[in-house]
Amino acid sequence: MGFSFLPKDENFFVLFSKQAELAVAAANLFLEITSKGVYDEESVKQMRSLEHQADEVTHEIIERLNKTFITPFDREDIFTLTKELDSVIDMIYTITNRMRVYKIQEINADLVEFAKVIDKSVRALTVAIESLKDTKRPQAALDSCIEVNRLENIGDNMRDAILGKLFETATDPIYLVKWKEIYQFAETVLDICEDVAHVVESIIVKQA
Amino acid sequence: MGFSFLPKDENFFVLFSKQAELAVAAANLFLEITSKGVYDEESVKQMRSLEHQADEVTHEIIERLNKTFITPFDREDIFTLTKELDSVIDMIYTITNRMRVYKIQEINADLVEFAKVIDKSVRALTVAIESLKDTKRPQAALDSCIEVNRLENIGDNMRDAILGKLFETATDPIYLVKWKEIYQFAETVLDICEDVAHVVESIIVKQA
Amino acid sequence: MGFSFLPKDENFFVLFSKQAELAVAAANLFLEITSKGVYDEESVKQMRSLEHQADEVTHEIIERLNKTFITPFDREDIFTLTKELDSVIDMIYTITNRMRVYKIQEINADLVEFAKVIDKSVRALTVAIESLKDTKRPQAALDSCIEVNRLENIGDNMRDAILGKLFETATDPIYLVKWKEIYQFAETVLDICEDVAHVVESIIVKQA
Q1: In angstroms, rounded to a whole number, what is the distance separating the alpha carbons of residues C131 and B78?
Q2: pLDDT in tens, C86-124
Q3: How far apart are CA A74 and CA A81, in angstroms?
Q4: N or C: which end of chain A has fewer CB within 10 A?
Q5: Which domain holds residue A132?
Q6: C93, C104, C174, C184: best to mutate for the B interface, most B CBs within 10 A
Q7: Quick check: B137 contacting A, CB < 8 Å?
Q8: Nearest by CB: C206 against A66, A173, A174
Q9: A72 and A6 in contact (C-beta within 8 Å)?
Q10: Residue B189: inside a domain, yes or no?
Q11: Over 50: is that where the pLDDT of A4 sits?
Q12: Residues 179 to 198 of A: which have CB under 8 A from any B CB?
């Protein structure tokens, strides 16, 4: 193994890549589950496995951060980035598990739409995070952040339209309480993706 | 233009003043909208415009923060101050928009009361923020922070009384779900104002 | 009084001990109140008194932090530790008060179970925080943090089971809305306890 000036930095990037991959896997699985409308023990177990793996990577990043003097970006930014990225996966897990708790057994077209937007947003995040390796060419990262922000806006409008419809048409208040929460959770995933994008943007501005 | 030791500091104050003004404008508009009970597309559009302007100022503050070596206060405090102040406006926007989504078309006396307390709290915050320019005479800022804390307590009691009444008298659960959320959001605005006041207090203590 | 190298550090420990004691007192009182099922003005008053005392200790810790150059741990960690510990007490107060607002007058076996888990978690936290005085022997602190994490998992499963049952059996939607919120608040106490444990773990890793 040759000498490297930045072995520790590289490790951070490897760990962030792993975490981003797990976020993509969670978003993929969520789209698959919602498309089938099957929120059983098995679906939740698969999602929980991704969530546990992501927890371990987050833990590794924070532990390394606490023991490393020289970091590729601001310590605070690394901490926030890994925490927020972990929250994306946590929130996707939370929704899946809540669907099981509510014993939902149906394909909900609105939720499938949300799952598609979440999937796109998490993919864009991954591009943004990968692009951090080469902060001298930040355009790809910045474009991806803009895309994440755009998708969050779309999510806001979707939630408003769907909640409006729900409150206008629902006759069963218990059904309404369940789905109100689920839709709001789904939009929250996109909010957290936007928070991740903001950290990426902030890292790029500081490196400029 | 003469030489100045603190040109960058001054700019931060100008930007914080702008942000505080936008918060006052949002609180004013919210009081006006609730007093009329008209939560239509037009009202939401006006509020969204304020919210967008505030986003831009926040963005400018953070970008400047990332590029500036010497700041008038702790970097962390500047970051938290602008973020929390932005959240005040975001939350006021969120309520207004949610009222539109819920197709509410009535004057709700309890919400008007909340809007009045929010208006007072945001005004007090503005005084606190303006007073930060002269940290050698912190009394005005501290008095305003005490006022913001006092109004948050009033908001807590209002929410408790209003929720108690709502749960005791409501017969329509869907109506209850809507208004429970709206009242809690309204109290959250006052909580965030209190968070802003805490940052101001912390800045003053550090300068003492 | 003899000379000490660390008078200020000791003071932080004394204050953290006080705060942890108040958290234990709040958890104890919550268990007592839920066991009796009496959520009246008097119960809330007692809890509010603990919450006020905790606010004062938090305030003292932050003020001291702002004025102290040398701190026993990272400033950021001290700040987060006191804030999160305060949030534990705030949340316990919030639940108690909300029960009064909802005019609940019954013993709820599920909530008593939650109160027992909260009580255990807060006790474990106290051990973790006390153990910070001797970071050279961190095992006791780490074991307690593991216990807090374990109890949070138990809380998650309890909430899922209880919410599942509630949504399956409830016929009164207003009853459901009340208790859904209460159970979720109860689980949130355990989430915040886990956040405190994470800060403790992070302090220990940095001292290693």
Answers
A1: 34
A2: 999 999 999 999 999 999 999 999 999 999 999 999 999
A3: 11
A4: N
A5: 7-207
A6: C174
A7: no
A8: A66
A9: yes
A10: yes
A11: no
A12: 180
Collapsed DSSP state (helix, strand, coil) of residue C171: coil
Q: What string of DSSP letters covers B53-94? A: HHHHHHHHHHHHHHH-S--SS-HHHHHHHHHHHHHHHHHHHH
Closest-CA distance, B198 to chain C, in angstroms, reads 10
Instruction: State which H helix or E strand residue A10 sits in.
Output: helix A7-36
The answer, yes or no, to whether residue B7 has pLDDT greater than 80, is no
Task: State which H helix or E strand residue A114 sits in.
Answer: helix A109-131
Query: Is the pLDDT assigned to residue B138 strictly greater than 90?
Result: no
pTM assigned to the model: 0.93
Rounded-to-integer distance, Cα B143 and Cα B130, Å: 13
With helix as H, strand as E and coil as C, how does C23-37 read? HHHHHHHHHHHHHHC
The pair of three-digit structure tokens given for residue B11, joined into one six-digit string? 């700019």
Closest CB to B168: pick one of C66, C103, C173.
C103
Judge whether B175 is closer than 8 Å to chain C, CB to CB: no
Number of structural domains (chain B) is 1
ipTM of the complex: 0.91
Residue of A nearest to C176 (CA): A174
Residues of C in contact with B158 (CB under 8 A): none
Rounded CA separation C102/B178 (Å): 17
The answer on pLDDT for A84 being more than 60 is: yes
Return d(Cα C73, Cα C87) in angstroms, integer: 20
What is the Cα–Cα distance from C57 to A184, expressed in whole angstroms? 36
From CA B98, how far away is CA B150, in angstroms rounded? Answer: 27
Measured in whole angstroms, the distance separating CA B173 from the mean position of its chain's CA atoms is 30
pLDDT digits (tens, 9 = 90+) for A140-184: 999 999 999 999 999 999 999 999 999 999 999 999 999 999 999
The answer to whether position C3 is within a domain reads no
Q: Is A172 on the interface with B (CB under 8 A)?
A: no
Does the beta-carbon distance from A101 to C206 stay under 8 Å?
A: no
Q: Pick from B167, B177, B205: which is nearest to C63 by CB?
A: B205
The CA distance from A71 to A82, in Å, is 14
Residue C15 to chain B, least CA–CA distance (Å): 19
CA-nearest residue of chain C to A103?
Answer: C164
Residue A174 sits in a domain whose CATH number is 1.20.58.220
Chains that touch B (3 or more CB pairs under 8 A): A, C
What is the rounded average pLDDT of the residues B167-179? 97
CB contact (8 A) between residue B160 and residue C103: no
Q: Note whether residue C194 is domain-resident.
A: yes
The answer to whether residue C159 is domain-embedded is: yes
Q: Which of A37-51, A55-69, B24-38, C39-53 is the least confident region?
A: A55-69
Taking CB atoms and an 8 Å cutoff, what residues of chain C touch A97? 160
Nearest alpha-carbon partner for A22 in A42, A44, A46, A39: A46
- Best residue in A97, A101, A104, A105 for a mutation probing chain C (most C CBs within 10 Å): A101
Would you call A103 and C167 a contact, using CB atoms and an 8 Å cutoff? yes
Choice between C63 and A50, residue whose per-residue pLDDT is larger? A50
Token pair 């939607």 in the structure block, residue:
C173
